[in-house]
TrEMBL record:
Keywords assigned: DNA-binding, Transcription, Transcription regulation
Organism of derivation: [Clostridium] aminophilum
Protein name listed in UniProt: DNA-binding transcriptional regulator, LysR family
Signal peptide (from-to): none
Domain (HTH lysR-type): residue spans on this chain: 1-58
């Protein structure tokens, strides 16, 4: 059960409206609807009744809300305890959305400090919304997130409302990630694919991340919600995702290839054609907070990595 999703459910119960709760929590209404639907599916019960006046809790929903409020209070107490007892021994804690370009930067920091006594590094991978929550409550000191350009205002308001600073990194067009031997590549080459060409193939996505911006594609012909795909395969980690795509005709959506993607997994990335959106990446951290040198070293490394990726992207897009 995702603690951040529980907070969204409590907000819907408080406002009696998914639309009003979405505005208050700085996410889109479709994303919040997906979250509530996933909670109901996980619980195996109807928690809310949708009416023309808004939403009302069912009897089961009222009991569910009571337990959610207890859980959130205890989690807040636990986070307060952790922040109060944390020492310099926890040298680096990072939360990130699941992109190998970021994790490779974390791995490089680990390599540099592998012989330092008492080093403790932590890496958490989750959705953008949960990464923001991690940095807000102090679970992580640095977060690296992504979001669609059309959601930039709402995402940055969410970040600012939590007392966080945002460091922009880069913006990329979405890519289709699929097996290097995929039949579509034999027909179309590697110049790119249209989203319509993928409708008969299985879409691979991470479990629970219904609100992930990358699954809502805005094309020249209109919006496409990949959560509504006819074939969906759910996974929990990147390695499992890559191996699955390599052995099937399934696909996922991401950005340009990471180092060794083709040689290690026989999986490549080609541009998603006619997409009018870009994926924006950025770093978040608390404002005016003491920075450890190791944290700044990681931030600098991530900035250089994404600047290099942006330069490569710009070169590919040149006529």
């Amino acid at each position: 059960m995702d603690a951040n999703n529980i907070r969204y459910f409590v907000a819907v119960a408080k406002y009696g409206s998914i639309n009003q709760a979405a505005k208050a929590m700085f996410i889109s209404q479709p994303q919040l609807s997906h979250i509530i639907r996933s909670l109901e599916e996980e619980a195996g019960m109807t928690l809310l009744r949708r009416t023309t006046q808004g939403t009302r809790l069912t009897h089961e929903g009222e009991i569910y809300l009571h337990h959610c409020e207890i859980i959130l209070k205890e989690m807040d107490n636990l986070n307060s305890y952790i922040r109060g007892s944390r020492t310099e021994m926890t040298r680096l804690s990072v939360s990130m959305t699941r992109f190998s370009h970021t994790s490779e930067c974390f791995n490089e920091i680990c390599r540099r400090y592998q012989d330092v006594p008492g080093m403790t590094f932590k890496l958490y991978e989750d959705s953008s919304l949960n990464v923001i929550e991690d940095v807000t409550v102090g679970r992580s000191s640095v977060g690296v997130i992504h979001f669609l350009s059309q959601n930039a205002d709402i995402t940055q308001k969410n970040i600012e409302s939590r007392g966080l600073e945002f460091i922009p990194l880069a913006a990329f067009r979405p890519y289709v990630c699929l097996s290097s031997s995929h039949e579509l590549l034999q027909e179309n080459g590697r110049k790119g694919l249209h989203i319509e060409q993928l409708k008969d193939y299985g879409f691979v996505r991470y479990i629970g991340q219904y609100e992930d911006f990358i699954y809502h594609i805005e094309t020249m012909k209109g919006p496409v919600d990949l959560n509504d795909s006819q074939k969906i395969v759910y996974v929990t980690d990147r390695q499992g995702q890559m191996r699955l795509i390599s052995a099937t005709n399934f696909y996922t959506i991401g950005i340009s290839e990471f180092n060794g993607q083709d040689s290690m997994y026989k999986v490549i990335s080609v541009p998603l054609l006619d997409c009018v959106e870009h994926l924006k990446f950025g770093i978040i951290r608390k404002k005016n907070e003491h920075r450890l040198e190791i944290e700044q070293e990681f931030v600098d490394l991530v900035c250089r990595r994404y600047a290099s990726l942006q330069e490569q992207e710009n070169q590919r897009n040149q006529p």
